[in-house]
């Protein structure tokens, strides 16, 4: 067994024959750092090791699958678990991640970090060429950004939809610590670009917000600052850039003069905050005033990733209300729960509503039964989940306008493409809701869509979901037959997880 991180890393590199520049590209470090790690002359910092190991595991697992080395890998690294028949890449990712983490924490060498990325101090400079600029952002700026605590605030005057088409611009975020501090990014959106965008680009925006789940994005209409060409990290540095014809950054100047930064900061922040905001993160929904207003509309599209918190049996609501009282939650939360129960019974028995659920998220709920409502976190029992499925089937028979769509997983499951961002729309009002079980105090769980065009675009996106060949519509009869055929299996799955 390897007892040093460098030894394990070198063995994986040699086994897969991956070039160091490929690894460097994906994890955002210079090749010289990878070489030092593999030779045990340096070591990643503990602060970033989880992200680095997760990325390394993805790279190595993908290469092993590509070369059909899976069985050889088990033998070479003395792993005695059998190779699964499904999702082999995820299995390999887990095994490699365990090897790297164990090797890292078993290492007993004391490494000096005096020359590490955290100690980089940059002087004002100009960078020319998009490749050099990309490397500058990932290798020079990201380490500086990682030193800023407890709150990081970034202003970017460029159109977010244009940047998403550039692919590489936001790669610097992959090199940043996103989880244990507040990160607010203020960025522009060109409404003309939004109006002309297709479903593919809007889906890229959804996946972007989903991927950088721990960042609070504030998106503004950019008409007052779209020619400013500024990237500003508050109280730290500014970058002024020029654009090529294809809208990629061609030349940029890094500025760290405190007086100049303060001047830029004042002008840019004032311009942003006086611009119409089209997507706004919030700490919470004002339940008692918002929910009745939202649910009194007549047509709904709901994309659910946080657990299927609808069609709960009456006794579940009563238990949730008791739990609110035990936890001394507000009267507003209790009143809103009661209102929601009534609205489900009255409104949704006759109004059209479309639920879209990713298979993996639905399976996650069947196993864990976690419901989030305001500040309340509630885990349903297996019996309640069975009653909920029965209630859903009865409601669908009663109201044929209720549609259930189930999305099969098309991509390998990892933290990037696992759906964590739910969408709720009544065609006039819309919001995204993050899974609160994954958040901490730094992360705002709600995105309100404040622009009718943006709502229209996301409504169209999720409507298009229903027409793709990897989304299947389930009638009440089909759900009932599926439920009855698998009732015993589902019950065992729910019971095993509930008692874990």
Question: What's the layout of helices and strands?
Answer:
Elements: H1 5-16, H2 20-27, H3 31-38, H4 49-66, H5 70-76, H6 88-106, E1 125-128, H7 130-146, E2 151-159, H8 160-166, E3 182-189, H9 191-196, H10 199-211, E4 216-221, E5 230-233, E6 237-243, E7 249-255, H11 258-273, E8 277-282, H12 287-295, E9 300-303, H13 314-326, H14 331-346, E10 353-358, H15 359-368, E11 370-373, E12 376-379, H16 382-398, E13 402-407, E14 421-425, E15 430-434, E16 446-449, H17 452-465, E17 471-474, H18 476-485, H19 487-498
Protein name: HTH cro/C1-type domain-containing protein
InterPro entries: Cro/C1-type_HTH, Lambda_DNA-bd_dom_sf
Descriptive overview:
This protein is α+β, with helices and mostly antiparallel strands and 500 residues long. It folds into 3 domains: 5-106, 434 Repressor (Amino-terminal Domain), CATH 1.10.260; 120-275, Endonuclease, Chain A (2-Layer Sandwich); 287-498, no CATH class. The chain is built from 19 helices and 17 strands. The strands form 2 sheets. The chain has a 15-stranded mixed β-sheet, sandwiched between helices. A two-stranded antiparallel sheet has the order 11-12. A hairpin with a 5-residue loop joins strand 6 (237-243) and strand 7 (249-255). The protein is globular and about 65 Å long. The two termini are 31 Å apart. Mean pLDDT is 83; it is low at 108-120 and 412-416.
């Amino acid at each position: 067994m390897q007892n040093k991180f460098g030894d394990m890393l070198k063995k994986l590199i040699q086994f897969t024959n991956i070039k160091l520049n490929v690894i460097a590209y994906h994890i955002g470090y210079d090749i010289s750092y990878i070489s030092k790690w593999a030779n045990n002359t340096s070591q990643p910092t503990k602060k970033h090791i989880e992200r680095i190991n997760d990325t390394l595991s993805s790279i190595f697992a993908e290469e092993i699958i590509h070369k059909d080395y899976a069985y050889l890998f088990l033998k070479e690294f003395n792993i005695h678990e059998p190779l699964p028949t499904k999702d082999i890449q995820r299995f390999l990712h887990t095994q490699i991640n365990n090897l790297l983490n164990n090797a890292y924490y078993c290492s007993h060498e004391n490494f000096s970090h005096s020359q590490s990325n955290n100690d980089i101090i940059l002087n004002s400079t100009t960078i020319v060429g998009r490749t050099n600029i990309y490397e500058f952002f990932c290798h020079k700026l990201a380490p500086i950004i990682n030193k800023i605590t407890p709150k990081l605030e970034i202003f970017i005057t460029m159109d977010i939809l244009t940047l998403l088409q550039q692919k590489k611009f936001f790669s610097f975020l992959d090199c940043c610590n996103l989880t244990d501090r507040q990160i607010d990014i203020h960025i522009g959106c060109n409404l003309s670009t939004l109006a002309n965008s297709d479903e593919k680009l809007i889906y890229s925006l959804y996946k972007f917000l989903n991927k950088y789940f721990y960042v609070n994005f504030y998106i503004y209409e950019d008409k007052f600052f779209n020619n400013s060409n500024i990237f500003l990290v508050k109280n730290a540095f500014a970058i002024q850039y020029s654009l090529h014809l294809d809208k990629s950054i061609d030349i940029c100047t890094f500025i760290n003069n405190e007086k100049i930064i303060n001047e830029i900061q004042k002008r840019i922040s004032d311009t942003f905050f006086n611009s119409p905001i089209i997507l706004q993160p919030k700490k919470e929904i004002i339940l008692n005033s918002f929910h009745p207003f939202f649910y009194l509309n007549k047509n709904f599209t709901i994309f659910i990733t946080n657990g299927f918190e609808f069609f709960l049996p009456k006794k579940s609501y009563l238990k949730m209300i008791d739990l609110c009282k035990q936890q001394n939650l507000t009267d507003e939360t209790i009143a809103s729960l009661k209102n929601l129960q009534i609205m489900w019974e009255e409104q949704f028995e006759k109004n059209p509503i479309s639920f879209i659920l990713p298979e993996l998220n639905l399976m996650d709920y069947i196993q864990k039964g976690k419901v989030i409502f305001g500040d309340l976190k509630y885990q349903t029992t297996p019996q309640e989940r069975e009653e909920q499925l029965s209630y859903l089937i009865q409601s669908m028979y009663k109201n044929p306008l209720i549609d259930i769509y189930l999305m099969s997983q098309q991509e390998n499951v990892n933290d990037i493409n696992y759906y964590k961002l739910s969408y709720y729309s009544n065609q006039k009002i819309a919001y995204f809701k993050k899974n609160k079980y994954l958040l901490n105090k730094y992360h705002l769980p709600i995105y309100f869509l404040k622009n009718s065009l943006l709502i229209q675009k996301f409504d169209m996106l999720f409507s298009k979901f229903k027409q793709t060949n990897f989304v299947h519509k389930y009638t009440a009869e089909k759900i009932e037959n599926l439920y009855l055929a698998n009732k015993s299996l589902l019950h065992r799955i729910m019971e095993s997880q509930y008692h874990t």
